[in-house]
């Protein structure tokens, strides 16, 4: 859809622009045929016709001061081309609104044929002798008001002023020289026509902050939001609505939005530019039609002179369904609304009047019943509030003149639980859902619920950049390059890779479960199998360590935005994880009578206390600029709604009376037993391909000191450390010993080794370790079974085969809960079959045999966006029968597919199919993705050894890669 054309001759040779994905037209040193625009001691004169839109002049003034932020010398805006000798000149204007621009066009000096008449497009080029006495000027011509505004802000971003310079304190990049290159570039129209955000569920954080800084949601606050949106090349806003009435709270806000160039909308539950809080009572079409009609008419007369995208339809009071509405009544409401729009706006038809009807919650049920929605109204499909788009245009809907759009969520209040504290968005998932949305032609409106706005800077930027130019996001691996470009703009190229990697890792850690859901009972991570809980904690710790290093490398002004957007979520989020994971470990250790139960209890308390320290740190940045932005309660949820205060999970402590079986206790992975006392558990078997280390925990179960030795009865087994001392309360209370094997000395086949752990006082423990000396053939490439399980990450296929029509299965890096996703591309390839469609193959080597092997396929909680072409994959083992699966149960619009709640809580659906009999030897698992939008993000083959855990077994060993 996007018609971007770039006539860029030099840009490959020149340093890349600071602007994300915007072709460079500026450089910071003298360039052949270029024009110096500003630098230390001189700023440009920006000529903007006095007759042009005042919003263009306003943005011009922003650009003039942005030069000051970057070079120390501001530019200035003038309304006529006089007094321009000895100053760099930028001429900016809107075609048809600027005499200067129109004059350059008619004199043949400026060719705007590529952009003329298009939506929000602009050209940027040097023009010689544009006016008397000016040898050369940079000319920015907009096809319309926002086209010109975007051209001006494009220069701001390129010189080094981030759209987030105020909202996230990104420091302007200092420059001494700024030159325009002698190139012509054109941009636009954007891929999505109306692109914006919804400030919602704004209490407590945003509202408290607004009250402290502005007293209410007034036009000074909105001016900051409008400017941010325009700098992000967005154009559309749903204002805060729970504690605010946009047009009423400050009567300057409505006209100001129009002046800036922001298209105002209202949320799905607020028809015709009226606020929820203005609703007449009773809010009921049946009993108070005259009251409701007046409310709607008044909305039109109030906003009719300002650029508005009208919200059509209605719902019940307070974001709920209305008991007296049904499909036919709602249709008559919409017909009435269209009639008053015509009369109120004085137009005979509405084809040029943007209108939106949001198919949200129960409204979907009405549509499903066959509502014949007027074709000039944009159907705004919504996600499930958890980032999974429910429905997209089907073939019978794609030719509607009003087209379609999507209402998406980065923040939500409701089922299964609120998430409005900090950023919990996996960008690769946003990519997958919104790219699908674009390819299914829902391109009229993209609006995303951003809660308080502030902690969601990164997902907002990503979403709006996709909406502006989807062509930069046309491959499944487009997210990480975007993150790098984003990090480079905000913090500098030196830390772009590490920052991008940190945020990509954060996405995987957080898609597993949102913070508010971590305390669900039972706790999801296994404290027993695969060391899962500890491993997840280590992942968070490692991420924090790397991110802290990046932070430490930055100058102090750049540290501030880095803290706000990157370090804070990783640090604060990591604390919540630590609190819950260690609380679960504390309970498990208490059962084992480990004295370190008390250490974990103290750790939970310390981490919980650290939470408010980190909150204070955020709130005290820049003398309290963002005080209140972290006011959201985030501990202790027990239903969807916020609790009234944070509460720490309960932890146990244990006294020091040692069990009669002695002070020393021993536990091993994959068992909850504590021995002596419990029967000594067998260690899980080890073979050369076991992905996890085998370990033995030796720990104090009372006060005192015990020395111990660990002695295997085979020379090829080594345990490190082989002896030690455990002491409680002061000293080392727990020692983890790791088993290693000298495979060259192990007898072939299966054997058993005894490992004796002898304390200086108390009972000895002998553990039995099964050792399997196995080997795959030297030419084998693929995964290798260990202990009856093969866990595969999608990007490690052994081969893939394109479909006969060119479709393929492509990797989405950093997708899903552990590693990567696999999806069908391109989306336009349509439904595939197993005979001609693309497939991926995952070779594996089995040592066990199983008569009833199973494969678990991990998929995201996606919806069947086209109910008659549901998501679909097929799987087979070797040349065996092919099983075709629709992973998402069918559902009707307005209701959720079965298992929905569990799937969004877990960030995955796990669908298990039978593979049947598996003999030892080489095998190939074949996976076809048969419907665009289908993603798989993990495969686990169970030959009888898979233990219960949340994420599944650790990835199996691979050979031959
Ligand atoms: C309709 O709403 C108006 C405005 O709130 C109210 O004054 C009026 O009493 C309502 N009418 C009925 C019939 O309830
Ligand atoms: C989307 O729109 C394009 C351009 O109008 C059209 O060629 C294409 O067939 C549409 N795609 C779908 C899925 O309808
Ligand atoms: C296993 O232990 C070794 C040696 O301590 C360590 O380097 C490695 O990272 C461990 N591997 C896992 C999966 O924990």
Task: Characterise the protein shown here.
The chain has 961 residues and is α/β, with parallel strands linked by helices. The chain folds into five domains: 178 residues, Chitobiase, domain 2, CATH 3.30.379; 282 residues, Alpha-Beta Barrel (TIM Barrel), CATH 3.20.20; 112 residues, Methane Monooxygenase Hydroxylase, Chain G, domain 1; 110 residues, Immunoglobulin-like, CATH 2.60.40.10; 178 residues, Jelly Rolls (Sandwich), CATH 2.60.120. Helix content is 27%, strand content 22%. The chain has 18 helices and 40 strands. Helix 9 links the parallel strand 14 and strand 15. The chain is globular and about 95 Å long. The N terminus is likely disordered. The site of one 2-acetamido-2-deoxy-beta-D-glucopyranose (NAG) has 6 residues, from loops. One 2-acetamido-2-deoxy-beta-D-glucopyranose binds next to loops. InterPro entries: GH115, GH115_C, GH115_sf, Hex-like_dom2.
């Amino acid at each position: 859809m996007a018609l971007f054309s770039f006539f860029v001759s030099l840009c490959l040779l020149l340093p890349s622009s600071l602007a994300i994905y915007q072709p460079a037209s500026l450089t910071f040193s003298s360039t052949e045929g270029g024009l110096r625009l500003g630098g230390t001691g001189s700023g440009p004169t920006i000529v903007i016709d006095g007759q042009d839109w005042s919003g263009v002049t306003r943005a011009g003034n922003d650009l003039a001061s942005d030069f000051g932020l970057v070079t120390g010398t501001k530019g200035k805006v003038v309304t006529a081309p006089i007094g321009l000798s000895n100053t760099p000149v930028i001429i900016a204007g809107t075609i048809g609104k600027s005499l200067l621009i129109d004059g350059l066009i008619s004199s043949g000096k400026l060719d705007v044929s590529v952009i003329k008449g298009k939506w929000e497009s602009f050209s940027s080029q040097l023009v010689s002798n544009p006016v008397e006495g000016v040898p050369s000027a940079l000319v920015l011509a907009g096809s319309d008001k926002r086209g010109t505004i975007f051209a001006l802000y494009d220069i701001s971003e390129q010189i080094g002023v981030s759209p987030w310079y105020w909202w996230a304190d990104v420091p302007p990049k200092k420059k001494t020289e700024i030159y325009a290159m002698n190139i012509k570039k054109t941009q636009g129209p954007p891929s999505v026509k109306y692109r914006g955000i919804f400030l919602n569920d704004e209490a407590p954080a945003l509202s408290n902050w607004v009250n402290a800084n502005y007293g209410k949601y007034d036009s000074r606050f909105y001016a900051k939001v409008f400017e941010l949106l325009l700098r992000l090349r967005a154009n559309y806003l749903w204002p805060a609505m729970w504690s605010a009435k946009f047009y009423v709270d400050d009567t300057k806000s409505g006209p100001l939005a129009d002046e800036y160039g922001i298209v105002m909308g209202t949320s799905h539950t607020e028809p015709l530019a009226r606020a929820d809080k203005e609703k007449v009572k009773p809010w009921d079409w049946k009993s108070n039609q005259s009251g409701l009609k007046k409310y709607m008419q008044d909305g039109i007369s109030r906003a009719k002179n300002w650029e508005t995208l009208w919200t059509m339809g209605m719902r019940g009071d307070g974001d709920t369904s209305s008991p007296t509405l049904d499909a036919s009544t709602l249709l008559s409401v919409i017909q009435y609304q269209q009639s008053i729009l015509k009369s109120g706006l004085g137009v005979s038809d509405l084809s040029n009047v943007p209108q939106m009807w949001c198919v949200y919650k129960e409204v979907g049920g009405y549509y499903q019943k066959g509502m014949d929605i007027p074709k000039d109204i944009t159907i705004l499909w919504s996600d499930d509030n958890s980032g999974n788009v429910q429905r997209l245009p089907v073939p019978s809907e794609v030719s509607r003149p009003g087209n379609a759009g999507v209402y998406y969520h980065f923040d939500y209040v409701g089922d299964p639980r609120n998430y409005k504290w900090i950023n919990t968005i996996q960008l690769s998932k946003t990519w997958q859902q919104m790219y699908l949305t674009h390819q299914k032609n829902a391109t009229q409106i993209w609006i995303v619920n951003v809660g308080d706005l502030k902690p969601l800077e990164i997902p907002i930027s990503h979403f709006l950049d996709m909406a502006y130019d989807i062509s930069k996001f046309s491959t499944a691996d487009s997210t990480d390059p975007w993150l790098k470009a984003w990090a480079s703009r905000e913090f500098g190229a030196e830390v772009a890779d590490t920052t991008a990697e940190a945020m990509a890792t954060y996405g995987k850690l957080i898609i597993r479960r949102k913070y508010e859901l971590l305390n669900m009972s039972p706790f999801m991570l296994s404290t027993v199998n695969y060391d899962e809980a500890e491993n997840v904690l280590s992942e968070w710790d490692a991420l924090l360590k790397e991110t802290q290093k990046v932070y430490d490398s930055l100058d102090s002004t750049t540290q501030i935005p880095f803290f706000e957007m990157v370090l804070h979520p990783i640090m604060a989020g990591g604390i919540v994880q630590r609190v819950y994971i260690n609380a679960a470990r504390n309970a498990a250790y208490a059962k084992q009578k480990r004295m370190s139960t008390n250490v974990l209890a103290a750790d939970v308390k310390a981490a919980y206390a650290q939470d408010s320290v980190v909150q204070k740190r955020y709130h005290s940045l820049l003398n309290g600029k963002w005080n209140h932005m972290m006011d959201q309660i985030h501990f202790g949820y027990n239903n969807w709604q916020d609790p009234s205060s944070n509460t720490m999970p309960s932890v146990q402590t244990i006294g020091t009376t040692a069990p009669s079986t002695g002070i020393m206790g021993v536990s091993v992975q994959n068992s909850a037993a504590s021995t002596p006392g419990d029967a000594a558990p067998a260690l899980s078997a080890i073979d050369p391909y076991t992905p996890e280390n085998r370990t033995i925990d030796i720990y104090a179960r009372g006060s005192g000191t015990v020395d111990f030795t660990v002695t295997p009865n085979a020379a090829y087994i080594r345990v490190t450390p082989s002896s030690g001392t455990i002491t409680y309360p002061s000293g080392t209370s727990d020692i983890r010993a790791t088993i290693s094997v000298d495979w060259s000395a192990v007898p072939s086949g299966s054997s058993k080794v005894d490992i004796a752990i002898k304390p200086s006082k108390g009972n000895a423990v002998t553990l039995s370790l099964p050792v399997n000396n196995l080997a795959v053939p030297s030419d084998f490439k693929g995964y290798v079974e260990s202990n009856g399980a093969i866990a595969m990450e999608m990007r490690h296929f052994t081969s893939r085969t394109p479909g006969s029509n060119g479709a393929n299965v492509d990797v989405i890096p950093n997708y899903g809960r552990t590693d990567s996703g696999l999806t069908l591309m391109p989306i336009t390839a349509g439904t595939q079959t197993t005979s001609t469609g693309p497939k991926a193959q995952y070779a594996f080597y089995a040592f066990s045999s199983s008569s009833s092997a199973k494969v678990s396929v991990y998929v995201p909680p996606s919806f069947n966006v086209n109910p008659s072409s549901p998501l679909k994959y097929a799987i087979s083992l070797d040349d065996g029968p092919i099983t075709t699966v629709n992973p998402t149960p069918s559902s009707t619009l307005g209701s959720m597919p079965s298992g929905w709640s569990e799937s969004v809580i877990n960030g995955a659906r796990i669908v298990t199919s039978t593979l049947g009999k598996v003999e030892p030897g080489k095998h190939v698992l074949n996976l076809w993705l048969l419907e665009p939008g289908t993603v798989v993000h993990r495969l686990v083959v169970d030959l009888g050894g898979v233990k219960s855990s949340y994420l599944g077994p650790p990835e199996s060993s691979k050979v031959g890669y």
